[in-house]
Specification:
Elements lengths: L1 E3 L2 H13 L4 E6 L5 H13 L2 E6 L19 H10 L4 E3 L3 H4 L18 H4 L3 H16 L3 E5 L3 H13 L5 E5 L19 H21 L6 H14 L3 E10 L13 E9 L2 E9 L3
Parallel strand pairs: 1-4, 2-3, 2-5, 3-4, 5-6
Antiparallel strand pairs: 7-8, 8-9
Helix pairs in contact: 6-7, 8-9
Bound molecules: pantoate.
Length: 282
């Protein structure tokens, strides 16, 4: 595994690989890797001739009161894991390399940020879209891999790739969970062991919601109320939102007519946890 910190060197490497007609998989990350990232890397290594993983804690996607400063950066451990997972290139640019002082461009995808995390994290998805557009143009991958835990992020990236005709296939991969059901996330590190045990109840509540929502005569409003009650009962939890949205448009859904997403954000201790579950019509 080779570590490349420079954009110019990354582009040269990709151009050489493409000239040799080798397919490139890209797994963009902010580091602090876990098994969720592992599943994306595994898929990329399986699907492509070469795999690039990037580690870049993107300042543009953190709000002023968010955890940019304390976001964990265990670089040596991450590099060791990526080597074990058999990637070819670790792209690890500095903040100045990605966003020099005169950087002036923002990529913004309309409408898909109107629900879920969008209103609660103003500017977050513009930051994500901007960095991902840049990573895709620098690395020029054949395929790029993203987890479905950040489902809204995945939909926004799919749209930006379509709208800008970027020559890459976006691959969404299933959520990887801890044994108790908690969705794997770098931010789980902020949880104490008792908080982690309590956090498992988020997935249990979503599963119950899915069951209720698929019972025909049951109204979505009462199903959501039941799930909301469950979430609020988790010790120490503050529910930021619980929403039912169309899985394609991310617009609020009032019934399960096509694939629908039940999604929530819950604050527990100093962690903000998101999770979601698909509900398909019967
Ligand atoms: O999902 C993440 O880790 C980040 O949002 C991403 C896609 C690497 C962009 O910074």
């Amino acid at each position: 595994m080779r570590i490349i910190p420079s954009i110019r060197d990354m582009q040269t490497w990709s151009e050489n690989a493409r000239r040799r007609r080798l397919s490139i998989g890209l797994v963009p990350t902010m580091g602090c890797l876990h098994e969720g990232h592992g599943s994306l890397v595994l898929r990329s290594v399986r699907d492509n001739d070469l795999t690039v993983a990037s580690i870049f804690v993107n300042p543009l996607q953190f709000g002023p009161r968010e955890d940019f400063g304390r976001y964990p950066r265990p670089f040596k451990r991450d590099a060791r894991l990526l080597k074990q997972w058999r990637i070819d290139i670790l792209f690890h640019p500095s903040p100045k390399e990605m966003f020099p002082d005169d950087f002036a461009t923002t990529v913004s995808v309309k409408d898909l940020d109107k629900t879920l995390c969008g209103p609660r994290r103003p500017g977050h998805f513009n930051g994500v879209a901007t960095v991902v557009a840049k990573l895709l143009t620098v690395v020029q991958p054949t395929r790029a891999y993203f987890g479905q835990k950040d489902y809204q992020q995945l939909k926004i990236i799919e749209r930006l790739v379509k709208d800008l005709n970027l020559p890459v296939s976006v691959v969404g991969c299933p959520i990887v969970r801890e044994q108790g059901g908690l969705a794997r996330s770098s931010r789980n590190r902020y949880l104490t062991t008792p908080q982690k045990n309590n956090a498992n109840q988020i997935f249990t509540a979503l599963q119950e919601g899915r069951k209720l929502l698929r019972l025909r005569p049951y109204s979505p409003t009462s199903a959501l109320n039941t799930v909301m009650k469950r979430l609020k009962h988790i010790p120490g939890a503050r529910v930021e939102y619980l929403e039912l949205v169309n899985a394609e448009t991310l617009k609020p859904a009032r019934a399960i007519r096509s694939r629908t997403l039940l999604a929530c954000a819950v604050r527990l201790g100093s962690a903000r946890l998101i999770d979601n579950i698909f509900i398909d019509p019967r």
